[in-house]
Design brief:
This protein has about 230 residues and is mainly beta. Helix content is about 5%, strand content about 30%. The chain has two helices and eleven strands, in the order H-E-E-H-E-E-E-E-E-E-E-E-E.
Length: about 230
């Protein structure tokens, strides 16, 4: 019975995923060097409660994560390694949050209405519904060129919708990297709070993926910012 339980746990983990490694300038960094270690680093399991503080960065040990800060340039592309790959249908998004004066990316907890969205994708509807992120083992985003210099958290999020037809069925996979951005402009953006930006009843979270067959999708959260 113990062997069967272990096999079942391994099977569940293989159906889920994490974002442990930062990618910059063609280099994939060692896991959790610049990314705050997530609670699911072993289980690979999701967050399903949008009111939980885990929806923010999914941190294993908030305030003592041990991650370092990566220096990057505005306009550059920054990515995450996916372990093993995105295995469920659903949208990919990236958020950023600027650390206030007197704090660094390492001390900033991301509390308050500070999170702004810099990217989101959506499905293509046809005979089948396809998602741009499906099957990816790396995901990336361009840091806005107009962004004010400073310390930031970069949050990757993937929402798995295969069980989202009932409340609490959507699965959230996310992680936060610590960045110091330079070479940008002077732009700052208003943000939303995480938790707070999502409700379990939002149409992009409570979503019937299979039947009746959907013909549109509304991403949850704020609109993507523009320079």
């Amino acid at each position: 019975m113990k062997t069967l339980a272990v096999i079942a746990l391994l099977g569940a983990a293989q159906a889920h995923y994490t974002f442990p490694g930062l990618i910059y300038n063609g280099v994939t960094e060692t896991d959790w060097t610049y990314v705050r270690k997530t609670t699911n680093y072993q289980s690979h399991g999701p967050v399903t409660d949008v009111t939980s503080t885990q929806i923010r960065c999914y941190e294993l040990e908030p305030g003592s994560n041990g991650a370092k800060t990566k220096a990057v340039k505005a306009g550059d592309t920054v990515g995450f390694r996916v372990d093993p790959e995105i295995q469920h249908p659903g949208p990919l998004a990236f958020y950023m949050a600027k650390a206030p004066s007197g704090q660094t990316a390492e001390t900033f907890n991301g509390d308050g209405a500070v999170w702004f969205k810099i990217y989101e994708d959506g499905p293509t509807f046809g005979e089948d519904i396809t998602w741009p992120s499906s099957g990816l083992s790396e995901v990336s985003v361009k840091i806005p060129t107009c962004l004010a210099d400073g310390y930031y958290l970069l949050r990757v999020e993937h929402i798995a919708l295969h069980s989202a037809g009932s409340t609490g069925g959507a699965q959230f996979y996310q992680a936060c990297a610590q960045l110091q951005v330079s070479g940008g402009g002077s732009k700052t953006f208003p943000g939303v709070a995480l938790p707070g930006a999502y409700k379990a009843s939002d149409p992009g979270i409570l979503f019937q993926l299979y039947w009746p067959k959907p013909t549109s999708y509304t991403n949850p959260g704020p609109a993507v910012v523009e320079c």
